[in-house]
Amino acid sequence: MSTIYKHTEAHIYSHKFWTDCTEPQELRETFERFLTEVDFTIVLFNEHHFTEQGYTCFWLLGESHLAIHTFPESSKSYVELSSCNKAKRDLFVLKVNAQKNISIA
After folding, report:
1. 103 pLDDT band (50/70/90 cuts)?
2. How far is CA 76 from CA 93, 99, 102, in A?
3. 17 contacts 34 by C-beta, under 8 angstroms
4. Virtual CA dihedral for 30, 31, 32, 37, nearest 10 degrees?
5. Who's near 41: CB < 8 A, 6+ residues apart?
6. pTM tops 0.85
7. What is the average per-residue pLDDT within 72-97?
8. Residue 13 CB: number of other CB atoms within 10 A?
């Protein structure tokens, strides 16, 4: 069996921002909904609640990844999406910008 490979130029399209939301459940539910609505392929989700304070989670995507890090002591969270699919990244950005309950810092 032979496999035919198609050469494509490597590109990563990212979107990163700060938000005032630091609630893990709200962040997880909101951003997973965005990923699903935009049709990203979720391969894996993982999260960690730090002992003193703070939370980190990430989604491994078929198109790259989304990571969220909370900084409760500063009342903000950092969100970063990296994607090799510009169209999906652009739709994700539209979802984020339209969201009412997550204010972008």
Report:
1. low
2. 19, 16, 11
3. no
4. 90
5. 61, 62, 63
6. yes
7. 95
8. 18
